[in-house]
Design brief:
heterodimer, A: 127 residues, six-stranded antiparallel sheet, two-stranded antiparallel sheet, B: alpha+beta, five-stranded antiparallel sheet, 9 strands, globular
């Protein structure tokens, strides 16, 4: 099912925190921010046409989200920030387990860049 | 006289050994240890800008460039980081990524050889889920990202204090050259 077939879920509060898993190969140095951050490409839609995330309060734990994951790192963003960018979110626990959700909407370069800069590393999954 | 005619163009070969099976072991363990660019110039028979030949234990990258670029600090490091993506495992992330396309690798190398100078800063190199390669710089208040994907397309994003710009191009990297030139510009005033 394509992400465009979903609508933003208003039952997910703006204050909710979402997690996105980050591959080690997509962590880059940012001299402007004076720290490492995810590449903006971490926020590009997958080949399935959606961006996979986890709603923190719906997930069992960050350890459960990272268990058996191919990625080594984890970042967090707020749902309110995602909506400020014009994106939506919908639950999708059927494909990704408890807490799994999809971010909806066009994610151009500017939006991906802002997500990458605002994203906060989640301990103990920080580079 | 064009700029090209004023320079001496040589064909150069970079020979990269195949990375160890534990690809995810980290970039630092591979960097600087598996690249050799023979110093002697070769003939100037016309070639594709960049050609990649896969051997059993190594990959040979051929390209034409100037002696200045051949001695650039960014060249060895960047070729090594880009070419090693050819051996990236198919399942390197959870998003069902496509295999990195050799054509995308050739394309991004060709672009970098065109738009970077001998004193340019090496970019960060990342694989992309759609089978491409992205190079990026975040310095001097500027963010610049260039992704090569789908064999022939380049997607870019540029941002500085005055705004941002993004787009897709096929062959003419002139706009990218403008952006990389800006990476060297700082807001510092000369000392008087």
């Amino acid at each position: 099912m394509s992400a465009s077939a979903f609508a933003d879920d208003p039952t997910i509060d703006d204050k909710e925190i979402i997690w996105r898993r980050i591959p080690e190969l997509q962590v880059v140095p940012d001299d402007n921010l004076k720290r490492k951050r995810p590449s903006s490409n971490c926020f590009h839609d997958s080949t399935g046409g959606h961006l996979s995330v986890y709603i923190a309060s719906d997930a069992i734990s960050c350890q459960a989200v990272m268990q058996d994951a191919k990625e080594r790192f984890l970042v967090s963003l707020s749902v309110g920030f995602i909506r400020q960018l014009g994106l939506g979110i919908t639950r999708d626990s059927s494909t990704g387990g408890p807490g799994h959700a999809l971010l909806l909407g066009e994610k151009g370069g500017r939006i991906r860049d802002q997500m990458a800069k605002i994203a906060t590393w989640v301990e103990p999954y920080a580079p | 006289m064009t700029l090209d005619a004023a320079l001496t163009w040589d064909r150069t070969f970079a020979i990269c050994n195949k990375p160890k099976p534990d690809f995810a072991g980290g970039i630092s363990s591979l960097r600087n240890s598996w690249l050799n660019i023979p110093p002697s110039p070769f003939d100037t028979v016309s070639l594709p800008e960049v050609g990649i030949s896969l051997q059993e234990h190594e990959v040979v990258v051929s390209f034409r460039t100037t002696s200045e670029i051949r001695s650039a600090k960014w060249l060895n490091q960047t070729i090594a980081e880009i070419v090693r993506l050819m051996w990236l495992p198919r399942d390197w992330n959870s998003d069902n990524p496509r295999q990195i396309e050799p054509k995308s690798i050739e394309k991004i190398l060709a672009v970098l050889l065109t738009i970077l100078d001998s004193d340019s800063t090496p970019p960060a190199v990342v694989p992309t889920t759609r089978g491409g390669v992205q190079v990026e710089w975040h310095q001097n208040g500027i963010d610049l990202e260039i992704e090569s994907f789908n064999s022939s397309k380049l997607e870019y994003y540029f941002s500085d204090s005055k705004g941002d710009k993004e787009g897709t191009i096929e062959d003419d990297p002139a706009i990218l050259k403008q952006f990389t030139s800006r990476l060297k510009t700082t807001s510092c005033s000369p000392r008087v």
